[in-house]
Design brief:
Length: 568
């Protein structure tokens, strides 16, 4: 072990920072931005060649894809995500498109097609009209979801004598239903199997079946989208760019293309605790810092430390940690009018008309190969969500489905096995899409597949996880991993600490920075009336600014010209 930060830095003349952040996902960048704005000398270390984690974007033949950003909630003025970006000072750098408010979620379940409109009242009116016998139970269920979510967000803000006295009353819904699964609560209120599936469809946003996910956690997630979905102009990279630019403006550093080999520790201090003092990079360079923040998942974090320095309690927790499901991501470019084929800026959840738990039980590679079909797909057309990316010829589809990690790895023992499995899965995918959008197989310009191995390699995600630790009851709330670790000056943030998703991970970074700076989270969100997120309608170009219309026109002219050159 290392003896002393002071001795080492003077002896080796190494760089020293106030805070070093490992990983540049939304949580790590938010923490870095908060600390840099507070005057700290900050360095963000990213092993990928671009920053952003799940928020990064990449290109195939000039077409942009954002693998982890498909929609964000609560972006309207005075809502929490908008306030976050305003308080971080990046709102003016962001434009969002409002997804179809009449159906930001489209449920294609069996032969049924049912839309989920923005607004909890609109949702109730729409679903109760379709399921009139379920009106009473549906109304109670949606009200309960809203109340439980409100109470979850209320708890951290409560302090003082009277708040403590009133906690049992003010969080009575959470207290009554907090120990139950989503399936239990939905089935209490709603009896129609199809309506149950519709209310459970957003389980895809956390990757746990209704019988396994904690009801309060699902409430918070569902409430996040009650008012509709929004998509950033420029994809996930736009958020990353806004954050990294502002980190650099505050003299922070972003180092990409180099991973962290190990977290450096000092000998035990007077508190009988080890202390994080820096990191050693894969290239052998050592950086030292007063605080080390890991934006990777808990297993990946503590794999950077020899087990001999971890308590038995922590080792046991890590051994028992369960991670969210992994995914297959199909990135497709097509030269067809997908809008005429039935797509718009809303998400499509394609599911079989069976109990949702059964859907999550049939995710092995063998089952998929046997069925020769993907029964469940999340279809996202980013060129309709972000019209500025549409060139008038090509549409961009990002289609996600879940898969069992272990069965995938078993099938891919060699590089040749991996290649063959990818080819077969792409073949099955195209066949599955053909049933939904006829003739699409003849219109494919490009198709790439991201696998659990891709997630491992580019995102350092344990078992290729999509959402960090899974959000079962025993891994949420007081049972989750915390921002502050047992190693002094070592902290964590990200999807495994509070919540996943762009907003959830960002708020975890805010929380970790607040702990380091010994302040309240709201203290770091600086009120600035000049900051405002700009929102445009994806489905209505009436109020689009001239510069956007000109940008789209230029893109279309260029694409048309290139198309004509190819055909000549």
């Amino acid at each position: 072990m290392l003896a002393s930060l002071k001795v080492l830095t003077s002896k080796l003349n190494m760089k020293e920072y106030d805070s070093i952040i490992i990983g540049s996902g939304a949580g790590g960048l938010t923490a870095a931005l908060c600390l840099a704005r507070a005057g700290q000398k900050v360095a963000v270390i990213e092993q990928h060649y671009v920053p952003g984690g799940w928020c990064h974007s990449f290109y195939i033949d000039g077409h942009r894809f954002s693998p982890g950003v498909h929609y964000i909630g609560l972006v309207d003025k005075e809502q929490s995500t908008s306030k976050l970006y305003e308080g971080l000072g990046i709102a003016n750098d962001l434009f969002f498109f409002r997804m179809n408010p009449k159906g930001y979620e489209h449920c294609w379940i069996g032969e049924e097609k049912i839309d989920m409109p923005a607004g909890i009242d609109n949702l109730y009116e729409s679903l109760s009209a379709r399921f009139p016998k379920e009106k009473k139970g549906l109304k109670k269920y949606l009200a309960l979801v809203k109340n439980v979510s409100r109470e979850i967000h209320l708890i951290p803000k409560m302090s003082g004598f009277w708040d403590n006295i009133l906690i049992p009353y003010r969080t009575r819904h959470l207290g009554k239903y907090g120990l139950f699964s989503l399936k239990r609560i939905v089935n209490w209120h709603v009896k129609d199997p199809l309506l149950q599936s519709i209310l459970n469809v957003q389980c895809g946003d956390h990757g746990l079946s209704p019988s396994k996910v904690s009801f309060p956690y699902h409430c918070a997630m569902m409430d996040h989208y009650f008012e509709g979905g929004f998509y950033p102009m420029g994809g996930g990279a736009a958020i990353v760019k806004a954050m990294t630019n502002n980190i650099k403006k505050n003299k922070g550093e972003i180092k990409t293309g180099v991973g962290v080999k190990q977290i450096l520790l000092s000998d035990k201090n007077e508190k009988n605790k080890y202390k994080a003092i820096g990191v050693e990079l894969q290239n052998g360079e050592k950086l030292f810092g007063k605080n080390i923040i890991s934006n990777t998942d808990p297993t990946a974090t503590f794999n950077m430390i020899d087990k001999a320095y971890l308590s038995q309690k922590l080792q046991k927790k890590l051994q028992n940690a369960k991670y969210s499901i992994t995914s297959l991501s199909f990135f497709m470019v097509v030269d067809m009018d997908v809008k005429a084929a039935g797509l718009d800026s809303g998400n499509v959840w394609k599911m079989p008309n069976i109990a949702m738990d059964e859907v999550y039980n049939n995710l092995s590679v063998d089952y998929i190969l046997e069925q020769n079909e993907f029964a469940s797909l999340f279809i996202n057309c980013s060129s309709l969500k972000d019209p500025s990316s549409y060139d008038g010829v090509h549409h961009i589809l990002e289609v996600i489905t879940f898969i069992d990690y272990d069965s995938f790895i078993i099938k891919c023992k060699t590089k040749d096995d991996y290649k063959k499995i990818k080819e077969k899965l792409c073949e099955i995918f195209v066949q599955s899409m053909e049933k939904l959008i006829p003739n699409i197989s003849n219109k494919i310009v490009a198709l790439e597949l991201g696998t659990p191995t891709t997630n491992d390699f580019y995102l350092q995600a344990t078992k290729g996880n999509t959402y960090g630790t899974n959000k079962s009851f025993m891994q949420t709330g007081p049972f989750s991993f915390t921002a502050k670790t047992e190693i002094e000056n070592l902290y964590m943030c990200g999807a495994s600490i509070m919540s996943h998703g762009v907003a959830g991970a960002s708020y975890s970074g805010l929380k970790t920075a607040a702990i380091i700076l010994k302040c309240k989270e709201e203290d770091m969100l600086i009120a600035d009336e000049t900051q405002q997120v700009q929102i445009l309608e994806a489905e209505d170009s009436t109020n689009w600014p001239d510069w956007l219309l000109q940008k789209i026109a230029i893109k279309k002219r260029r694409a048309t010209f290139n198309q004509q050159q190819k055909q000549a």
